[in-house]
Spore coat polysaccharide biosynthesis protein F (Candidatus Terasakiella magnetica), 242 residues
Amino acid sequence: MAHMRTVVIIQARFGSTRLPGKTLEKIGPISALHHAIARCQRIKGIDDVCCAIPDLAQDDAIAREAEKCGTTVVRGPQDDVLKRYRMAADATQAKTIIRITSDCPLVDPDISSQTLKLFEQSGADFACNNAPPSWPHGFDTEVTSYEWLRRADDEATEPFHREHVMPFIRTHSDIKLVNLPSPTDLRQHRWTLDYPEDLEFFRALAQKLPDLVNATTDDILKLLEKQPEISEINHHLHDKSR
């Protein structure tokens, strides 16, 4: 029997209204994108990490950085991110897809691994760790099957569903969804890269934790407990989307 391939697909693009080129910005010695990729590469039980990047010239630098970090790169339409995911899943022969976004440089490989395990053991169609949110903003992990991704791509017509990839599946009446909650409520933490203040927050962290790419969530939480002023840098942005 052929091995069922599990692939992390990271969406990344240069265009961002609030902070263009944000994923190429340096956090310590490496880019925000490199942080996200390196952490995704440590998720247990995966076969590949793929970056799904728009096929525009302005995104060529993102594609080069993703290749340099050792990922497969698939290019597709800028605004139809769902189509881009389908293309990436086809190119990597993925049977299970883990969706992570490139603006999550502190995504926790252990929590993403647990979310994948929950998907596999529960027999659900969809597993995530944000329904409802309880982890830091920036840990979002969504897992589904190729069958459901293909169905979404074939059937979803609303622009919102095309742009945000998973809502068509998450809200479908046929879906069995499981969620991985945090043992303690951590959703007050904003660890996502969307605004200049977020970048400032990550850079302040990197100064205190030079090996930030390998820092655990526990390491980061302990530091922030001792130095709450770091969290204050971007706390006022919390949170427009949750």
Observations:
- The first strand starts at residue 6 and ends at 11.
- The mean pLDDT is 95.
